[in-house]
Amino acid sequence: MKPLVQVNNLRVVARNDAGVDIPIVKGVSFALDKGEVLALIGESGSGKTTIALSLMGYARQGCRIAGGQVRVGEQQVLELDERGLSALRGRTVAYIAQSASSAFNPSKTLMDQVVESAAIHHTMPRAQAEAKAVELFRALALPDPERLGSRYPHQVSGGQLQRVMAAMAFITDPALVILDEPTTALDVTTQIEVLRAFKDVVRQLGTTAVYVSHDLAVVAQMADRIVVLRDGEIREDGATPQVLNAPAHEYTRSLLAAAEPAVRDISIELPSLTRLAPPLLEIRGLHAGYGPAGADGLPSKRILGDINLTIARGATVGVIGESGSGKTTLARVVAGMVPIARGEVLLDGGALPSCTGGRTREQHQRVQFVFQNADTSLNPAHTIGGILARPLSFYHGLKGDARRRRVLQLLDLVRLPAAIANRLPGELSGGQKQRINLARALAAEPDLILCDEITSALDTVVAAAILDLMAELRRELKVSYMFISHDISTVRAICDEIVVLYAGSKVEARPREALAEAPFHPYSHLLISSVPKLEQGWLDGVCARRASRLPPLGAAGTAAPAAGAALCTFLPRCSERIDGVCNRLPPPRQMLANGGEILCHHAPAALALRQSPLHRFEEVA
User: Fold this and answer.
1) How confident is the model over 245-270, as pLDDT tens digits?
2) How far apart are CA 493 and CA 484, in angstroms?
3) Contact assessment for residue 167 and residue 91, using Cβ atoms and an 8 Å cutoff
4) Measured on CA atoms in the order 154, 454, 290, 570, is the torsion positive or negative?
């Protein structure tokens, strides 16, 4: 039987500033049978997305397809003219992008955008397309599928929008669907929902798919076969069990090793840090949010409630939670970007003014922020040298040769060559840009760096290098970090203490060495057990276990929350809730024998008996 997709000797080149074509995909060949899911994996720059886009006859700006053949069904894609390619894209080959938020028109309803492809390709009348869209919404486990289409993109969550994009791709019954890192930016619990929905629809429709990812644990749940890429060449091509369990190529083995971040040596010799000196940062009873204040003095949109947290000098505290839990708002409050509604933030025992306008230059200098998106946080019109020079001038008054020398020192500090100083941000890789963001923060010589999801968009190898660099800088410079992430594996690799936020509440805190020890707050247990494992079938198993334990919201026998009670924010999703208690009384904060704390009605011993062991993290304990 002839393969549905056949790629032979595909070559793609990019033209450099000197007008010379540089090969970036070098003679790649593979085939894909009907109904098969093929994963393309590798580091950033390996050619994964470039190859996937070539299946639609598309090359990004500055690149061109230089040779080879791509056949999808009976169509020779690289021989099609513009009209033929337009007919192919969205009809024969559909594409699901990494960032759903940037792929939707904010001024149109979801339904208008989902059925648009069906209208363009004249595959069915509008009424039929809408009915099919509703069925896809239902198949993708989207809430209220009959009315979801009337909403606008900003009215649904990121995970829901990613699934709506999948409905947009599947509406025309394409022969091939390309999924390009569709869960990379999602937190672990949302990722599970999206992966399960994608997998269910692929099974139901018998879809042929190419799944682009750098995450081997995710690929293990989705793919029948894996193609491993490096520098535009195939290093390994095999069935998923073989690649995961008996990789043939050394590079594949290195990717598998990097899939689970190693625990970094974060020990530093600072004997007086916690015993004699006050904490570097202390947060007391913090409330924050957005919008006008109500009668109680709190903002109408409340994001954080009663947060208490300390960071010792030279320590790293990780803050984890799903999207919307308040992690970034917490960092922005510390940085002075969001006002304090109630409570206080102290630096070395002195209160920090609520907003940046009231802070001194020294206070700004001592607390620096490294943002999540390296692309948008660097001015594309300025050279790297100019970007790093600005804080040197502003905070330290450096000029001329002294400033140039310090720029080179900063580049060396983050392990980048001196020649980078003359480049623009657009000429750097994602990992290089994130190192520049870190160097810019270090230029101020701060005491505390707030790191907001700084490795979430990076592949595992580059992310591991950034984590190693942070641990090294901490030992050398004695800098403290607040490390914000939705990835528990990353946080446990570098942090002394882990704080868990849910819906603006601090539901748990524990030292790193106790990460694998039950009891956990039920939400923490959900988060940690949601980290995908490098084994096929893990997704099906975890979804089945959760379906059997967690009653549907509003199920019979579940008592309603008492009006006005300051209840546990996790109550509606909790598989361990105690009706008559959890829905009536606010949860107490309980101290654990391992030095941690949880916000829960359950006695710690009772929770420990009910919670499954977390074998994935046993090496930390």
Assistant:
1) 999 999 999 888 877 666 666 666 54
2) 13
3) no
4) positive
Nearest to 240 by CA among 538, 457, 553: 538
Q: % helix / strand / coil in the chain, to the nearest 5?
A: 35, 25, 40
The whole-angstrom separation of Cα 198 and Cα 40 is 17
The tokens for 326 are: 């308040």
On whether the CB atoms of residues 14 and 63 are closer than 8 A, the answer is: yes
- Grouping H, G, I as helix, E, B as strand and the rest as coil, residue 539 is helix
For the 5-258 domain, the top CATH level (class) is alpha beta
Please report how many Cα atoms fall inside a 13 Å half-sphere around the Cα of residue 459, on the Cβ side: 22
Each domain of the chain, given as residue ranges in start order, spans: 5-258, 281-378+430-502, 522-620
Task: Please report where in the chains the tokens 């993290």 appear, as a residue.
Answer: 617
Contacts of 2 (CB under 8 A, 6+ apart): none
- Partnered with residue 307 across adjacent β-strands are 286
Q: Do domains 5-258 and 281-378+430-502 have the same CATH topology?
A: yes
Check: CB of residue 541 under 8 Å from CB of residue 521. no
Q: How many CA atoms lie within 13 A of 489 on its CB side?
A: 21
Length of the chain: 621
- Annotate 194-242 with DSSP letters as a single string: HHHHHHHHHHHHT--EEEEES-HHHHHHH-SEEEEEETTEEEEEEEHHH
DSSP 89: B
Compute the radius of gyration of the chain from its Cα atoms.
Answer: 26
pLDDT in tens, 541-551: 877 776 655 54
d(CA 502, CA 23): 47
Report whether the peptide linkage leading into residue 519 is cis, meaning its omega lies within 30 degrees of zero. Answer: yes
CA nearest 52: which of 39, 66, 62, 67?
Answer: 39
| pTM attached to this predicted model | 0.83
In the DSSP assignment, the letter for residue 265 is -
Q: What type of residue is 107?
A: S
**Element holding 359 (H helix, E strand):** none
Which residues 6+ apart lie within 8 Å of 164 measured at CB?
A: 100, 104, 110, 114, 137, 140, 142, 148, 156
Residues of the chain with pLDDT under 50: 270-275, 551-565, 615-621
CATH number of the domain at 281-378+430-502, out of 3.90.1150.10, 3.40.190.10, 3.40.50.300, 3.50.50.60? 3.40.50.300
If you ran DSSP here, which 8-state letter would residue 550 be given?
S
pLDDT recorded at residue 287: 95
Strand order, beta sheet including 448-452: 367-370, 448-452, 480-485, 316-320, 497-502, 505-511, 597-599, 589-591
Which residues face 399 on adjacent strands?
none
Buried b vs exposed e over 439-466: b needs ≥16 C-beta within 10 Å? Answer: bbbbbbebbbbbbbbbbbbbbbbbbbbb
CB 55 within 8 A of CB 133: no
